[in-house]
Amino acid sequence: MARPALSEEERRVVQVNIRLTEEESKRVSAQAEAASLTPANWIRHKVFTGRFPVTKASPIEAKLYRELHYIGNNLNQAVKLLHSGKLSPAYLTILMTLLNIKNDILKRLVG
């Protein structure tokens, strides 16, 4: 299913270029990522509404959440190895403790 065609008035044909320092670019990208927008759409929203777009999660929280997700995946893989007999049962207590800690951190992070 194709995207509907835009009318001539709705098409964005004028391009405005701005120069940013590396630090400014990183800040815009981080804020845009936190608001689930592209940097261009984040800037467009700020310019035309005068307000910053709603941040769904702070950039630090988003990165932390992703890292915890990766850790959780690794722990789940280790538990699967344990259940298949490829890992010593001595690790069960450690893995379960780590999974509980990860889940507790996620609960505190999400709210």
TrEMBL record:
Name listed for the protein in its UniProt record: Plasmid mobilization relaxosome protein MobC
Pfam families: NikA-like (PF21983)
InterPro entries with a match to the protein in the record: NikA-like
